[in-house]
Design goal:
Layout lengths: L2 H4 L10 H8 L6 E4 L6 H9 L5 E6 L2 H10 L5 E5 L5 H4 L9 E5 L4 H5 L25 H7 L2 H12 L4 H11 L8 H11 L4 H19 L2 H15 L5 E6 L2 H17 L4 E3 L9 H6 L7 E7 L1
Parallel strand pairs: 1-2, 1-4, 2-3, 4-5
Antiparallel strand pairs: 5-7, 6-7
Helix pairs in contact: 8-9, 8-11, 10-11, 12-13
Bound molecules: S-adenosylmethionine (SAM).
């Protein structure tokens, strides 16, 4: 049975689904931790295709995702936990049962992007929020109001790889005192006004600055960097960690995190292959979100 097909509810197309399954290689008795449950795309498919796995634990820092999937998947092997994957060891009440397979599918789900109130989309008007868990830390608006010109330029340059970062930060800090439209579309319009060149270049700057703000609001790279060594060292022998990334900053951290783990302690394990797995042409056609996806996996010795 596939939970989502049965319910005619499949709002989020899981990226690299077949590749994730082949990299995780679910086996009898496995305890799988999905640290980014999202809309449960991996969870529903793995639970239905692998009747012999022992448990599937879905963790997400977005309470809406947890509530949605908990309402969809009714399977005694499935449970959910709310929180950040960085804290999974404290969050899971497992006794001796330690996950031997872990999967992370980074970033936001299409459902989060499509919900204007979350503030992730520059195409629909919403608050400049972008917090995946609604409550912790600064919102995107806090960052735009409180960071200095130099700090904002660094944010747009480092996390958005935006080459006009200095120009944008200078104009923004100059204009923000009188800025009235503190919404996602308001900030996108500001970027369109001050970024030189044509429409496509302006849109690129919008995408990059929104990505940068989202990464900083949710400390996405910090979460990932701190989690990789923790997750690898907690895996039992033959355990696997599989990570799907969506931009070069994430992919670099995963590649280097895996390399660092195997070179600091060669008996720990190894990266599957030097090259990441990529989506097929067919998947990219069907799901444009998959275009930038890369999968890397680590096997514990
Ligand atoms: C791309 S979606 C995952 C989609 C999922 N694989 C599926 O098929 O439905 C990413 C999810 O990870 C969650 N997330 C991102 N960073 C997280 C973190 N540090 N800890 C826990 N959840 C996180 C987001 O809230 C989002 O729901």
């Amino acid at each position: 049975m596939n939970y989502f097909e049965d319910n005619h509810l499949r709002p989020h197309l899981p990226v690299l689904l077949e590749e994730v399954m082949s990299a995780l290689d679910p086996q009898v008795g496995d305890i799988i931790l999905d640290g980014t449950l999202g809309r449960g795309g991996y969870a529903g498919t793995i639970l239905s295709r692998f009747p012999d796995i022992s448990r599937y634990i879905g963790l997400d820092r977005d309470p809406d995702s947890i509530e949605f999937v908990a309402g969809q998947i009714k399977d005694p092997r499935f449970s959910t936990v709310s929180g950040k994957f960085e804290d999974y060891q404290q969050l899971l009440d497992l006794g001796d049962a330690v996950p031997n397979k872990i999967v992370l599918d980074l970033g936001v789900s299409s459902h989060q992007i499509d919900e204007p109130n979350r503030g992730f989309s520059f195409q629909q008007e919403g608050p400049l929020d972008m917090r995946m868990d609604y409550e912790s830390g600064w919102t995107a608006e806090d960052i735009l109001r409180r960071k200095t010109e130099k700090e904002l330029a660094d944010i747009f340059y480092i996390y958005g790889e935006e080459t006009a970062a200095r120009h944008i930060a200078k104009f923004w800090v100059n204009d923000r005192k009188s800025f009235k439209d503190w919404t996602t579309t308001g900030f996108a319009k500001f970027l369109h006004r001050i970024v030189p060149s044509g429409y496509n270049r302006k849109q690129l700057a919008v995408r990059r600055c929104f990505q940068a703000l989202r990464i900083v609001v949710n400390d996405e790279l910090g979460q990932l960097e701190r989690s990789i060594p923790k997750m690898i060292s907690s895996l039992p022998p033959k355990g696997r960690l599989v990570i799907v990334t969506f931009h070069s900053l994430e992919d670099r951290l995963v590649k280097h995190g895996f390399q660092a783990a195997s070179s600091s302690n060669p008996s720990l394990g190894l990266q599957y292959s030097k090259k990441p797995m990529l989506p097929s042409d067919e998947e990219m056609k069907e799901n444009p979100r998959a275009k930038s996806a890369k999968l890397r996996g680590f096997i514990r010795c």
